[in-house]
Amino acid sequence: MYFKEKADIFGGVTVSSTDLQPSQKEKDMFREIMSKSLDHWRSRKVKGVWVKVNIADSDIIPVLVENGFEFHHTQPNYLMMTKWLPDTPSTLPRYAHTMIGVGGLVIDEEGRVLLMRERRGYYLGWKFPGGASDPGESIFDTAAREVLEETGVRAVGKALLCLRQINVSQYENVGDLFFVCLMDVINPEIKPCPRETAACRWFTREELENLPEEEFHEFHREIMRRYDTWKKSGRRGCHMASCHFTSRKCQMYYID
């Protein structure tokens, strides 16, 4: 008896705990079938074995560890574990190791800049509204959502102004990419989120320049300098266009 599996195009197999019979999830039975399955996979020259453990089946995790499986990634309702079978370095891909954040540089027709203060966090000075991208969002989608959630202002993405990369963020082995998105205002009315936003307002450029450094970080000042350079250049900038050469949702960003 072997575990039910699904083969992949890279010479590996995936086993899902939700496909197992209740008796197969009992530790002793699971241990016995896993031993036979590993021998079977080795005889077939299978390379990587993936086991998706539903949270309800977490009792089998110690048995997988006994058999040399390692943690690969986790989601709220499952843990993925892997084992590389050949006597060669593993070529199994790592899980996603970069977080994506987006800040919205929102400037109205009068040239005023939208800034907000967070209620909690590492930096409590004035900043551009923004936050982490949700699964399935484009960069412009994230910018529009975060600006609306934190300030109540409706705006749409116009161009990517710059990108900041941090190789190690607050999580181990996870980097951070932060995109700054220039945005057009649709509705300038401010309705700050009481849970996230301590203060929010429009600033003139003169008011920004007069803010002390602890109130407006050098990172944000550099973004404003980059904005001024971009505006003087007359270039369109890095803009987004949907593409149709893949079955998956995809956006391309072009620099003009």
UniProtKB/TrEMBL annotation:
Top-rank lineage group of the source organism: Eukaryota
Keyword presence, Hydrolase: yes
Domain Nudix hydrolase: 97-232
InterPro entries xref list: Nudix_hydrolase, NUDIX_hydrolase-like_dom_sf, Nudix_hydrolase6-like, NUDIX_hydrolase_CS, NUDIX_hydrolase_dom, Pre-Nudix
Molecular-function GO terms, alphabetical: ADP-ribose diphosphatase activity; NAD binding; NADH pyrophosphatase activity
Matching Gene3D superfamilies: 3.40.630.30, Nucleoside Triphosphate Pyrophosphohydrolase
UniProtKB keywords: Hydrolase
Statement: the UniProt record of this protein carries the keyword Hydrolase: yes
Protein family: Belongs to the Nudix hydrolase family.
PANTHER family in alphabetical order: FI03680P, NUDIX HYDROLASE RELATED
Full protein name: Hydrolase, NUDIX family
